[in-house]
Amino acid sequence: MSDTVDKLVIFLAKRDGIDKLVKTFQYVSKLVNWHVEATNPDIAHRAKQWEVASGLSRKAFRTGRFLTGFNALRRNPGSKPTLRFLAVLANAGEMVYFFFDHILWLSRIGTLDAKLARRMSFVSAFGESFGYIFFIISDFIALKDGIVAQRQLVSMEGSKSNKEASAESIRKIKVDRVMRLMAVAANVADLIIGLADIEPNPFCNHAVTLGISGLVSAWAGWYRNWPS
Fold this sequence. Notes:
Distance between the termini: 15 Å
Largest sheet: none
Number of strands: 0
Transmembrane segments: 83-100, 120-143
Order of helices and strands: HHHHHHHH
Low-confidence stretches: none
Structural class: mainly alpha
GO molecular function, one term: identical protein binding
Mean pLDDT: 90
Helix content: over 70%
GO biological process, one term: regulation of peroxisome size
Function: Involved in peroxisomal proliferation. Promotes peroxisomal duplication, aggregation or elongation without fission.
Number of helices: 8
Strand content: under 5%
Shape: globular
Family: Belongs to the peroxin-11 family.
């Protein structure tokens, strides 16, 4: 129990940890609002207020986040030219997303002209979706490379020492695979949310679709950021 509490403290000390927790609040409240809207308008209104407050607080908490794209490229540009190119596109899209999301937040709280909100929402969502497409492609390439590497390690096993080294390498590949699958799940879910802003449609904009997508993204991110 104490170990879980310690990990929770570490998790919530991270900016991403807090973001995933508040994102959970945001999309749980969206689903609650949808579920009780017809039967209990008062609770639905409170849930809507919780959703809006959570969304705005997440935007405030992400101030300056667009700069992390530069750091990601500097620290981990990728080993292959293809992955480096995809990383540039993915992080460029994410930087556009976070930068214009700051302006969207300022327009929604009344600091800037409220008329900017719709335009900034579109640009931010477009950058977000653009970036997520290339993050997803990169992860699928890395997953494929991991499967190939695992098969090679299995085929090269011979002596006991080789088996132990291969077992450790295979374990790392499997851990990386799980993390990348979580990243794909989160990015696909966020892509659906982004498409709801870019091109509103009955499927993407439905409260259940948005609610489930938001929770998938939040909980996949929760898993990836949880201390090992």
